[in-house]
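DDE Tnp4 domain-containing protein, Lactuca sativa. C-alpha cells?
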Amino acid sequence: MNIFLDSISSPSSSDDDELVMHTLLSTAHDIVRQRGEFSNVEKKRRKSINQDREAANELLVHDYFNLDSLYDLSKFEDHFRISRNLFLRIARDLENNYEFFQLKWDARGKRGFTTFQKCTAALRQLAYDIAVNASDEYLKMSARTGREYTYLFCEYTIELYGDIYLRNPTKNDVEQLYVAHQAKHGFPGMLGSIDCIHWVWGNCPNAWRGQFTRGDHGVPTVILEAVVSQDLWFWHAFFGMAGSNNDLNVLGASPLFNNILQGKAPNMSYIINGREYNHGYYLADGIYPEYATFVKSYTYPANEKRKLFKLAQESARKDVE
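C-alpha cells:
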C-alpha cells in the first residue's frame, strides 16, 4: 500500500513531518513482520554486472541534494513523499548509528552504495509500492539488494524512533498535558483532541475503489485516526481503515483504549467542580459515542453558558484539525 498519500487537508510542513514519521513507523512494523517470506526461496547464482554505482550517486545528488539541485524542495517532496529535511534527518541518523548504512568498499576495492542511495531505494518502495527491481536503472541496485535495504531501513527506523513516536504517554506526560491544556484552552484533565482525516489514495486498484470511497469525498481514501495535543504532537495514530468507514467504525477497530482496558494506562487524577476523576478525556465531534472519555460540543446550545462552552470546545479542537 502507498503509505505517503495526499491529505485532503493541508497541514504545515513540520506537522506533516511528524505525521509522516508516525505513518512510516507503523508501516515499517508491518514490513519487518513480513520479513522472512523470501528466506526460503532458492538462491541462484547471478551474472555479475559492472554497474556504475558512483555515477548513479552523483546523478542522485545532482538531482536532489546539491545547493543548486535540479529539483527544488517542492519537487523533492512530490517525488519522495517526505520533506528533504526529514529525509536528511533519517539518513544522518541511520549513517551515524548503523554500519550497514555507511559507505564502504568491498575486498576488491569496489565502491558500495551511499547512504542516500540506500535510503532512496527503501523510501521509493514504501512510498510508491514499486517493484523491488524498479531502482535498478536509476540507482544501479539489484532487486535483492533493494529488498534488503528496505527491510533494514524499516527495522532500524523502528529502533531509532519507535520509543519517541510510537510510545504511549507516561504519568509525567499526562501531568504535563493536563497543565498545558488547562493553561491554553481552560480544560482541566484534557489529554488532547481526536479526529479522523481522509488521505487520498491515488493509486487505489479499480477493484477496491468502492470499498475505499465515501460519497462525501468522491475519491478512494485511507483513514487516519489521530490524537493531538496543544503542541501538535501526535500521541496516537491509527492508519489504514478503508475510506468508506466513518469515525465510529474506525474507533471500533482502533487500539486507543487498549491500555485503559488492560489496566496499563497511568492513573492521573484531576478535579472538576469538586469531583475527582482518574482518567483524562479527549475533545471530539458529535459522531463519537457518549463516553466519559469524550467531551463533545453542544449541537444546539440553549443558553449563554452552553454557547460559551461550544466556542471554547470547538476552538480547542483546532489542534487536531
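Strands lie at 6-7, 190-200, 221-228, 234-242, 270-272, 275-277, 281-284, 294-296.
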